[in-house]
Design goal:
The protein has 14 helices and 22 strands. It is of the alpha/beta class. It has two domains: 257 residues, Aldehyde Dehydrogenase, Chain A, domain 1 (3-Layer(aba) Sandwich); 189 residues, Aldehyde Dehydrogenase, Chain A, domain 2 (3-Layer(aba) Sandwich). The strands form six sheets. It has a seven-stranded mixed beta sheet with strand order 14-15-16-13-12-18-19, sandwiched between helices. Strand 10, helix 8 and strand 11 form a beta-alpha-beta unit. Helix 3 packs across helix 4 and helix 4 runs parallel beside helix 5. It is an enzyme of class 1 (oxidoreductase). Belongs to the aldehyde dehydrogenase family. InterPro entries: Ald_DH/histidinol_DH (IPR016161), Ald_DH_C (IPR016163), Ald_DH_CS_CYS (IPR016160), Ald_DH_CS_GLU (IPR029510), Ald_DH_N (IPR016162), Aldehyde_DH_dom (IPR015590), LUC3-like (IPR044086).
């Protein structure tokens, strides 16, 4: 039987969760609805004492939780997933208000939590055995201890759950710190966890950047899983080095797309545009550079422009909206800077306007820049917004070299009717994940992580559990 709805959940009151209990605080902050720029509900700002108490609770329960049979942990995770989905409508509405996602895509993120949970419930913790005449070597994997999850604002539900599930399944305890821009869904996600797990297994403490910094240096936390920007990721790694805690970093990218000359222009162009503009460009693996063979450059660009003009931008609760606002004012101003730089340098706007229209929300119309120079800001950097450059190429070797000419390497895509030829190109792209004939779509079935400065380690897939485990090897010598 699926669990019934929990009567104590109030969707307009928010708490930190420490040792299974709701906690308020003397100080509060507020998220902002990016569709209206209006202030949302109060959120308690966790104190250093809250963090200390959360770590103490997590460490106290860890010995018993880590020894709980994995089948029992699976059972509780399954119940947790069922509990979450009892509130699909509430989570969808709350996510739309705090993040700005249109209803269709907010609901898609909520539903995706079931996919991530379902995949992980099938996984086993690996074991290895080697034997020869003298000995038997057994390699097992043991939970790390207390994990800290520092989560971003672009997919606050899915990326929180994507850290909670593997951590809990492998026998760890976890403390989640949501982004202060989007704290609400994560707080409710973990409030619901208290109906399922023992106190201290899954906790959440919201606050400002100081709280995240304290988590990275605290000796009572054994691992940090961080999703966010490259500059912050470097600070996280530096801070974690002080206690040599384990670190997983999923950082930004400047994902390149290569369009081979044999594609069906009318079918592929809208898909490529969606790869750039999905979630208003606020995706770490969104397409951020488009290289199109010169023989089809103009018709392909024209087809992308036609599709882009058809996209409706609006608030999360408007009908027919495909793209919502930029999530917060800080990112909104950053994205506007790319428009201004493009305008000042006289680059051509294939679609979109040089000046972002002012309004009550943080809205930006999807924009394509026609053939800016390779050293331009819009090509070299990650805007994290709905603006993308398109450039022609004549030589495939040159396109591959340009795609790889970056300090980042998170994702990339290749499009071509000849799938074998497209896959050969994909093999040469320096990125953690490459998609052939699809825009970037991370999935729980595949390990996800970056190369170069796009991150360290990875999560999900069959081997993603190892990010939350230490190898433990026993050498047994046979008696003579």
């Amino acid at each position: 039987m699926s669990p019934s709805k929990v009567s104590t959940i109030e969707w307009d009151k928010f708490y930190n969760i420490v040792d299974g209990q709701n906690r308020l605080a003397k100080s509060v902050h507020n998220g902002v609805n990016p569709s209206t720029a209006e202030k949302l509900w109060d959120v308690p700002i966790a104190t250093e004492q809250d963090l200390e108490d959360a770590i103490a609770s997590a460490r106290k329960v860890f010995p018993s939780w880590s020894q709980t049979p994995i089948d029992k942990r699976r059972e509780l995770l399954k119940k947790y997933g069922e509990t979450i989905m009892q509130y699909e409508e509430e989570f969808t509405t709350l996510l739309g208000k705090e993040n700005g996602k249109p209803q269709l895509f907010a609901n898609g993120e909520v539903k995706a939590m079931s996919l991530w949970l379902g995949w992980h419930l099938k996984l086993e913790i690996p074991e290895e055995t080697f034997e020869d005449d003298d000995k038997v070597i057994k390699t097992r994997y043991m939970p790390l201890g207390v994990c800290g999850a520092i989560c971003p604002w672009n997919y606050p539900l899915l990326l929180s759950l994507g850290k909670i599930v593997p951590a809990v399944l492998t026998g760890n305890t976890i403390i989640v710190k949501p982004s202060p821009f989007t704290p609400y869904t994560s707080l409710k996600l973990i409030e619901l966890a208290q109906e399922v797990f023992p106190p201290g297994v899954v906790q959440v403490i919201g606050g400002n950047d100081k709280l995240g910094a304290s988590m990275t240096t605290h000796p009572g936390i054994d691992k940090i899983s961080f999703t966010g920007s490259i500059p912050t990721g470097k600070k996280v790694m530096e801070a974690c080095a002080k206690t040599l805690k384990r670190v997983t970093l999923e950082l930004g990218g400047n994902d390149a797309t290569i369009i081979l000359p044999d594609v069906d222009v009318e079918k592929v162009a809208p898909e490529v545009a969606m790869g750039a503009f999905q979630n208003s460009g606020q995706v770490c693996v969104a397409t951020k550079r488009i290289y199109i063979h010169e023989s089809i450059y103009q018709p392909f660009l024209d087809a992308m422009v036609r599709f882009t003009k058809s996209i409706k931008v609006g608030g999360y609760d408007e009908e027919g909206v495909l793209l919502g606002p930029i999530q917060n004012s800080m990112q909104y101003e950053k994205v506007k800077g790319y428009f201004n730089d493009t305008k000042v340098n006289g680059y051509k706007f294939a679609v979109g306007q040089p000046d972002v229209a002012a309004g009550k929300g943080f809205f930006v119309q999807p924009t394509i820049i026609d053939n800016p120079p390779e050293d331009s800001k819009i090509v070299q950097e990650e805007p994290f917004g709905p603006i993308v450059p398109a450039m022609p190429y004549s030589d495939l070797e040159d396109a591959i070299a340009r795609a790889n000419n970056t300090l980042t390497g998170l994702g990339a895509t290749v499009w071509g009717k000849d799938v074998e030829a497209a896959e050969k190109v994909a093999f040469r792209l320096e990125a953690g994940s490459v998609w052939v004939n699809s825009y970037e779509k991370p999935t729980p079935q595949a390990l996800f992580g970056g190369v170069k400065q796009s991150g360290l380690g990875g999560e999900w897939g069959k081997t993603g559990l190892l990010a939350y485990l230490n190898p433990h090897v026993i050498h047994v010598y046979k008696t003579k």
